Amino acid sequence: MTTKITVGVLALQGAFHEHVVLLRQASTQLATLPNIKWAFIEVRTPEQLARCDGLIIPGGESTTVSLVATRSNLLEPLRDFVKVYRKPTWGTCAGLILLAESANRTKKGGQDLIGGLDVRVNRNYFGRQTESFEAALDLPFLNNDHGATEIKPFNGIFIRAPVVEKVLPTIHGEQREEGARDGTVIAPARESLMEPLAHKPVEIMAKLPGRGRALPAKIVVSLGEEAGDIVAVRQGNVFGTSFHPELTQDPRIHIWWLERVKRAALEG
C-alpha cells in the first residue's frame, strides 16, 4: 500500500515557487521507503491547506501575507493547522515572524500572527534590503539523521531578516505579558489536540554572533557559541529560520525537514 504525503507551500506572496523547486529536488535525495509518494502543492485556499500533511510559509512581507490570508479566509485555518493539529510547519524569514507568538517593532492592528513558536521576534532586525548579507552557518542538526561526523557549512541568506529576540516560556493561552509591551503584537490562543507536541520547549537550532550583519560573508558561525543572534528555532513540529534556504541550491535543510514531515505523517 502506498502512502501519499502532501506538502504545501503557502503561495500568497513571496518566494513560494523557489521552495517548491527545492522540495522536489530534496524528495529525490531523501532516504525514504519505497511506498511513500510525495506531492507538493501551492496553497491559496482552505481546501488546499486541508490536503496538506506539512506546510512551508515562505519569505516575503509578513504584513502583506497576513492581510491576504485574512481576505482569503485562510488565517484561521492556518492557526488551526499549526496550533490545534500541530502539523509540521516551517516558516522562513517572514514565515518565522508569522509563526512567532510575539513580534515587536509592529504597529498595533498592522500585523496578525499565526503563532506556534513561543518566541519573540524582532522584525527587520538586520536592517534594510541594502543591508542584506550571507553567512556560512554551522548547523549540527543536519548531522543527526545520518550520524555524519563532519558537515560543510550552510550558506545563510539574510534579506531584511528578523531575529529571535527572546525564547518565551511555554504556557497555556496567550503570551499576555508580551502583549503589554509597546509596539508588540501577540498571537491568539488555540487549544491543541496534540498536547505532547504543544508543550515541548523551544530548541535553538542556529545562531549568529551578535550583530551578525557585520560579519564577512564567508565566516563560519558555530552554534556552540553562547552569545549571538538566534536565527533558527524549533518547537515540536514547528520550525522557523530567519534566513532563506530556498534561495540557495542546497537542499539539505529541505531534506531534513521532509524527514520530519514523513515521520509525523506515518505516526499520525
- Share of residues in strands: 25-35%
- Cα(first) to Cα(last) distance is 16 Å
Q: Order of strands side by side in the largest beta sheet?
A: 2-1-3-4-14-13-11
Care to count the β-strands?
A: 14
**Main sheet characteristics:** 7 strands, mixed
Helix content: 25-40%
Coarse morphology: globular
What is the radius of gyration? Answer: 17 Å
Average the pLDDT over all residues and give the rounded result.
Answer: 87
**SS element count, helices:** 8
- The chain-level structural class is alpha/beta
Low-confidence stretches: 212-225
Order of helices and strands, N to C?
A: EHEHEHHEHEEEEEHEHEEEEH
The gist of it:
With 268 residues, this protein is α/β, with parallel strands linked by helices. The protein has helices at residues 16-29, 46-50, 62-71, 75-84, 94-99, 176-179, 195-198, 252-267, and strands spanning 3-10, 36-43, 54-57, 89-92, 100-104, 117-122, 133-137, 154-158, 163-167, 185-186, 203-208, 220-221, 229-235, 238-241. Helix 1 crosses helix 8 (252-267).
What would you note in describing this structure?
This protein is of the alpha/beta class. It has helices at residues 16-29, 46-50, 62-71, 75-84, 94-99, 176-179, 195-198, 252-267, and strands at 3-10, 36-43, 54-57, 89-92, 100-104, 117-122, 133-137, 154-158, 163-167, 185-186, 203-208, 220-221, 229-235, 238-241. The protein has 8 helices and 14 strands. Strands 2-1-3-4-14-13-11 form a 7-stranded mixed sheet. Helix 1 packs across helix 8 (252-267). The relative contact order is 0.19.
